[in-house]
Amino acid sequence: MARVARACLRSILKIVNSTLGLVGIAMILYGLWMLRVWKRDMESPSFDDFDYTALWFIYTFLSIGATLCLITCLGHISADSSNGFCLSCYMVIIFLLLLLETLVAADILLNSDWEKDLPEDPTGRLHDFREFVESNFDFFKWIAMLIILVQGFSILLAMILRALGPNNGSKYDIDEEYTSARLPLINPHLQTPQYVVGEPRFTTKNDAWNINK
Prior knowledge:
Layout: H1 2-41, H2 56-81, H3 84-110, H4 125-135, H5 137-164, H6 169-181, H7 205-212
Subcellular location: Membrane
Protein name: Tetraspanin-19-like
GO cellular component, one term: membrane
């Protein structure tokens, strides 16, 4: 029963964890699109003298997407191995990510001048992204709530899977395979003959004389 429950938890954790991977892939694709649009807009002689550090928003967007993909890979590895250390690292990373998202959301909601705390974005991608989010605020609100629920559910599943511990059944399966591998290839069910240990018998001179007759 515990093995079935562990397998179900692994599958659910992989499915839930894949949501973060999809968000990360979407952010990477959107970041590459912003980079492509910026390069198209910058086809001018001043393009060579442009400071690439000004692309901080695009680089940050791509970095966050890549980080989510790496966290997804860690979650899949933790779910497959059910290792306590991997699951603990996964839970800590998800918790820190959830805490960071909460702080950023609180700063945006409570601070009306939050854009002034950020460096200047000469590409204009930050302004365009803000207008895109504001025009589809209801959609992004549900997306944000879904991501928060997924992260909380992932932590809960990892805690339960860590409490159940790793699957020890595979160890016995390996032992059985190793034992069967040591059996002879030809007729492995043939038992070795049983030997009776007794006192050795020596022939006497009379017995040898009778045989010669």
